[in-house]
Amino acid sequence: MYQVIASDLDGTLLDADHTVDQFTATTLRELEARGVPIVLATGRHYCDVKGIRDVLGVRAWLVTSNGARVHDPDNRLMHKEDIDPAMARQLMQPEFAEGTHLNAYQDEKWLADRHLDWLADLHQDSGFTFDVVDLKNHSGEGIAKVLYIGEHEHLLQLEARLLEQFGDTLYITFSMPDCLEVMAPTVSKGHALQVVLDELQLPAADCVAFGDGLNDIFLLKTAGHPFMMGNAAPRLMETLPDVPRIGRNSEAAVAHKLRELFELPPLAETVADQ
């Protein structure tokens, strides 16, 4: 039985241009009209995802910063976990940030060490943007996530150094090959999804979930009906080999799968009936 939907955004629900396509938006609106709760679970900032939710046109729950924040459909903060300030300060030093584009998320702010046009372009649906600040001298207070953007090989080396130094005192994961993200140790999309399910009083066994990145591992492990994108990261495929794969995000595969699972009529019929 399917009672709730949880989906990652980039590489999953969003198209190849990191934007919302109309077929996906219409499908989610139909499901919401049937009373199916929707959870958007992403590494993106809460303020960014609010804008994407508006474009989708649904009253979704928001799991953001890989689970460091959970907001309900009325934007009430339901769950929050920050990195220990001393650790956050350490993570933002050149010792780790050198060779990367350093970013950090707070409740209402996205902080970056310099401007990059292409990074701003990824957030065109929401219009949310960053403030350029001197992160190496930041207090470390209120940091939900530290994000390193760079070449994948460099980030793999950085991941190894971070794991060696911090171990399980931090949650370290890739959201995309060029994005290495660090959160508090108890943060994950899976833990945050459980927070939402507890509020909704719905079992994880009845949850459908979709993901494509390493930061989706716990989301897919928590949901009773997980699905992996055809464009998923190879390490995710290796980690969860038994999770069924669907099409690619560029093909609106999540929307197509949802229409199949929930037995929605073909979209042409839906439009014709309106």
TrEMBL record:
Cofactor(s) annotated in UniProt: Mg(2+)
Coiled coil ranges: none
Name of the molecule in the record: Pyridoxal phosphate phosphatase YigL
Keywords for the protein's UniProt record, in alphabetical order: Hydrolase, Magnesium, Metal-binding
Matches recorded under InterPro entries: Cof, HAD-like_sf, HAD-SF_hydro_IIB, HAD_sf
GO MF term (any one): metal ion binding
Hydrolase among keywords: yes
EC number: 3.1.3.74
CDD domains cross-referenced by the UniProt entry: HAD_Pase (cd07516)
Annotated family: Belongs to the HAD-like hydrolase superfamily. Cof family.
